[in-house]
Write a structure and sequence with these properties.
single chain; about 280 residues; alpha/beta; D-Maltodextrin-Binding Protein, domain 2; six-stranded mixed beta sheet; about 20% strand; globular
Length: about 280
C-alpha cells in the first residue's frame, strides 16, 4: 500500500514541478539605481522564466566585486555583466560563460566608454592633470580601465596623475559632472547622451567594446538548460524584446568567450583596476 501511495503521489505531482519550483538567481550591476534594475530587467526575466519553467529572482549586490564573488561561490546562476567584469570573472572561474550579447540602441553589438566633462567649463584632456575624475567602480569597463587608456593615448599621462573619486554608477558620474563635483568622468556613452541636454560633453571615447552579456554559471545550469534558454532568448520576436528595459530592447546575438579578446588586450596594457576594490 505504501508503494502504491508513493506512486500515486509521483503521478499527481509530476516529475517537473519540484524542479520548476527551484528559483534561479540573477544579478546585475546597478547602472543607475535599484529601481531601474527592477523596471528594466523584470520583463526579460519573465521571458526567461517562460523558457526555463523556473522562477528567477534578482539578487542585489552593491558592486562588481560582490557579484563576482557570489558567482564564483555558485550563489548566482545568471548575471548581466559588462566586458571587463566578465573577463576578470572568467579568469578566476572558468564555469562562467557568455551566452547572449545584447545589441545597443543603434543595433550594433558593441558600445563605447567615454570621458566627459561639463561643456560650460571648457575643459580639455590636457587640462585634467591633477584634477578630480569621477569613476564608477574599479571593475567597471568604463571606469579606471577605459579612462586610463583614453588619458594615456590622448593626453599623454595616466590616471595616476589625477585625483579619482569613486561614485558607484554611471548616473552618479553624469550628475557629479553636471553638478561641478568633478572635473570630468568616465561612463557609458548611452548614459552620457542622456545628460547631453544638461551640458555633458564627450571629450574622448573608446573603440567599440563587446556589449553587455548574459553570463551563465555552467556549474549550476546544465547543457540542456543553457541550450534551451539560448534558443528561447534568440527566438524572442521584436514585439516581445522591444518591451524590455532600455539596454535590452534592441535585439540579441549569441556570445562566445573569444569576443572578449580585445578587452583582455586592453586590460593587459593598462592595469589601474587591479590596484583597488570598490
Amino acid at each position: 500500500m505504501i508503494a502504491v501511495f508513493r506512486l500515486f503521489l509521483l503521478i499527481l505531482i509530476g516529475p517537473g514541478v519540484p524542479h520548476a519550483a527551484e528559483s534561479l538567481r540573477f544579478a546585475s550591476m546597478e547602472l543607475e539605481s535599484r529601481e531601474v534594475v527592477i523596471r528594466e530587467f523584470s520583463p526579460l526575466l519573465k521571458w526567461m522564466e517562460k523558457g526555463l519553467g523556473r522562477p528567477i529572482h534578482i539578487a542585489y549586490h552593491e558592486n562588481y566585486d560582490d557579484i563576482l564573488d557570489a558567482f564564483a561561490k555558485r550563489q548566482i546562476d545568471l548575471a548581466y555583466l559588462g566586458p571587463l567584469p566578465y573577463v576578470l570573472l572568467r579568469d578566476r572561474y572558468p564555469a562562467a560563460e557568455p551566452m547572449i550579447r545584447f545589441n545597443e540602441a543603434d543595433g550594433g553589438a558593441g558600445y563605447r566608454c567615454v570621458l566627459a566633462a561639463f561643456r560650460g567649463d571648457a575643459i580639455r584632456l590636457a587640462g585634467l592633470r591633477n584634477r578630480t575624475i569621477g569613476l564608477t567602480q574599479p571593475l567597471s569597463t568604463c571606469g579606471p580601465l577605459s579612462v586610463d587608456a583614453l588619458l594615456r593615448k590622448q593626453a599623454g599621462f595616466g590616471l595616476e596623475q589625477t585625483r579619482q573619486r569613486l561614485l558607484g554608477n554611471h548616473q552618479n558620474v553624469a550628475q557629479a559632472i553636471v553638478g561641478g563635483e568633478v572635473a570630468a568622468g568616465g561612463l557609458k556613452e548611452s548614459i552620457a547622451k542622456k545628460y547631453a541636454g544638461l551640458g555633458l560633453e564627450v571629450l574622448a571615447s573608446t573603440a567599440s567594446l563587446p556589449g553587455f552579456a548574459l553570463i551563465v554559471n555552467r556549474a549550476t545550469l546544465n547543457d540542456a538548460q543553457v541550450a534551451s534558454l539560448r534558443r528561447h532568448l534568440l527566438a524572442a520576436p521584436p514585439s516581445v524584446y522591444r518591451l524590455w528595459g532600455a539596454p535590452l530592447r534592441h535585439g540579441m546575438q549569441s556570445a562566445a568567450d573569444a569576443d572578449y579578446d580585445g578587452v583582455r588586450a586592453l586590460a593587459d596594457k593598462s592595469r589601474p583596476v587591479g590596484a583597488g576594490s570598490p
